[in-house]
Specification:
728 residues; Thrombin, subunit H; Rossmann fold; six-stranded mixed beta sheet; six-stranded antiparallel β-barrel
Length: 728
Amino acid sequence: MLHRPIQGDATSISSKFFALLIGIDLYLPNTLPSGSSYNSLEGCVRDINHVASFLQNTLQVPQAQIFKLTASNFDGFNELKEPANQLPTYENIVAKFQELTDLAQPQDQVYIHYSGHGGRAVTIYPELKGNSGVDEALVPMNIGNSEARYIRDLEIAKLLQNMVDKGLVVTVVLDSCHSGGATRGGVNDSGIRGLNKNVVDTTPRSQVSLIASAEELMQNWLTLTQGQQKTRNVTVTSGWLPEPKGYVLLAACRDNEYAYEYAFNGTERNGALTYWLLDSLQKLGGEVTYKVLYDRILAKVNSQFERQTPMLQGEGHRIVFSGQSITSQSAVIVKQVDVAKNRVLLQAGAAQGLCQGAEFAVYKLGTTDFTQIHQRVALVKIVEVRAEASWAEMTKLLVEDHAQGTIRSIVQPPKTLSAGIIQDGAPALLLSPGVKLVRKIRLLPAAENQLSPDIDVTVALTALKITKETVQGNAWLEFLSFDELSDEPVSYQVSVNGQGEYEILDAGGELINLRPSLKIGAPNAASSVVDRLVHLSKYQATLQLDNNDWLSSLVGKLQVELCQPGENRSELLPFNLNGNLPILNVDEYAVLRIRNRSSQVLNITVMAIQPDWSICQLHPEGAAYFEPLDPKQEKLVRIHTNLPEGYQEGVDVLKVFATVGATNFRILELPALDKPRKGIQVNRATNPLEELFAAVAGEQPPSRNISVAAYLSDKWTTEQVQLVVKRL
């Protein structure tokens, strides 16, 4: 029996725990024939030793179940400490993967941690990647020898898939460059783990793999990248390394960024990812998900190294070092705490539709159940909006009251923050939107001849006003009576029909399909109507979100089109219907082509806005928030059509967001209209972006001036396509 106590947690695991730890400080030889070289590092073996200590001392993993391959630089003289069979060569790394796979049994925990260089080499799979393609790879310690081989992306995918196929519970941590898609040179006091990102090793190397034949490796890759899910109305397959299925991948950075190592304690270097991973495990304890763990790591790393954005892919809702998963509603993370200015930096901004005045509740680090109000530590209000982040000032401090054996939140007057009240990575939940998010709802009386005498419309509509304050998210709504004037457009109208049912209509009077119908005398009918109005308001806000600044440097740089296979199936032809929407049947396929025409890397997220009033992140799948798309490159996202049950036809909107920085669009997700929302949703989109600019900057910027609005619009953009789906 293996116990894993973390900060007093004595939860036990019946399965065994195995680890493969690989750390490379000394690359010998390290110079490539082209003259480029993988410089020796200082903190990789130390990373591995610290991880091993954590596993043994905190998780109580027996030493015999920890496999280590290291290349230590003996006192800086380019001499190795380790014997040949413990060195991280290609052959030894592959052998340890295979030995571990054979030894572990189904449901056993397998933890893999690599600290060292990542690299790129000209592909040895041109049939799959094309003659100009590259392979992302882990770099063995003797790569300067032309006879040495990289551990290439297709091989890594196959090694991990073998573990998943056996039923092992796998976690992979890659503290190296070229790791954002999945796979550490120097700046001031920090070092970079990898070559220059533009260097591709063209050295001719052996194409024989010790893992599987080239045919098997390519087939495995194709299988992983072409599998389809049918749990959404529109589905997708994609991935750099294929989107992890059956395991968790925590990588140091995006594939266009650097992975840094740094002397965090003043003397000894560690990889930034490894250092904050271990620190977060100790701070958070054992019963948290990888998503919660990742949020804190991201906040810590990204606030210190702006050019390093750790990535989480795969089963992000899985409990750390467990095979069990839990779900929790999305929240914004606190990226930085500015004690001196009494404020915090939240990881959400104009790209999510935030505006000044929005209020958030900040919770204790590690909180996943946001119904536990006593876990709140502070209330904050947005005062400065950026493209993908916002500064929020603390307005109230919340403390626990244990008087008489109860726990409740007590509001204290605002006071200056002190260290530790709010921690980096803590979740923050949107409580109420800014005024520009509020939707006007007009309550309509019915014509006298449409109702039976026993239906009292006045009572039914008054019930909506009374129950509004009890419904989560009600700050989105402002009710207007039939004859009440408004200086802003009305978004929806509510009335009662001849059958005594509530009806919701759009601004033009078109009936919105409510499922199921709501009788005015039914229990909770009024609150259900209010809840649906909140839902519709959030849905429409996301649909309307756009970047309307024609001076933005990103104008025209994101191109999105829906394509279909050509006659010879080897080319893609855009749907060209002279302004009409493409019509597809259920269970058909199309391809969403996304092109980055800018000179910088853009982070791409695709949201599916669907006819049942739901919104989900379509791409990337799994735990990833976005996928980096290099300049002048394109991404093909395969689309599979479906319709919600009971629908014969519907319009899907595929909305593509592109941001310069890291951000999270999953917080825009909504279930179908007839499904309950999971608590208060966060970071909703607002009205068109010009309204946001007015709220942030106070006025539209003149074309001759640079203003906050213009600055924001240079950081993000969005494009969308629509398609009609019909059921035969």
